[in-house]
TrEMBL record:
Entry's transmembrane regions: none
Name recorded for this polypeptide: Reverse transcriptase domain-containing protein
UniProt domain Reverse transcriptase: residue ranges: 21-92
A Pfam family annotated for this UniProt entry: RVT_1
GO terms classed as biological process: DNA biosynthetic process
Cross-referenced InterPro entries: DNA/RNA_pol_sf, Retrovirus_Pol_polyprotein, Rev_trsase/Diguanyl_cyclase, RT_dom
Domain of life: Eukaryota
SUPFAM superfamilies: DNA/RNA polymerases
Length: 100
């Protein structure tokens, strides 16, 4: 399995914190999340030609529809190396960056 995080090697002003929450259907299990609200401020908007949710829910006479399964859709895009410092997050012991 390829690693998608790595130890942070350079200082950064972008530090997100880990948040531990119980899994909704398994109260004895936990989910480790990252609060990326601060990092979201660094994201540049891009023009997207993919239809919006509103476009999809308004078929306007369409007779053929497609279904897309995004279950395996996470971690499909490579993060530019010069952007990795923005994804830095902290645990109790170390700092990490997201690679991909």
């Amino acid at each position: 399995m390829e690693r998608i995080i790595e130890k942070a090697t350079e200082p950064t002003n972008w530090i997100s914190f880990t948040v531990i929450v119980p899994k909704p259907h398994a109260p004895d299990a936990i989910r480790v999340c990252i609060d990326m609200r601060a990092a979201n401020k660094a994201i540049k908007g891009v023009r997207n030609i993919t239809p919006t949710t509103d476009d999809i829910t308004q078929p306007n006479g369409a007779k053929v529809f497609s279904k897309i399964d995004l279950k395996e859709g996470y971690h499909q895009l490579i993060l530019a190396e010069e952007s990795r410092h923005i994804t830095a997050f902290a645990t109790q012991l170390e700092f990490f960056d997201i690679k991909d």
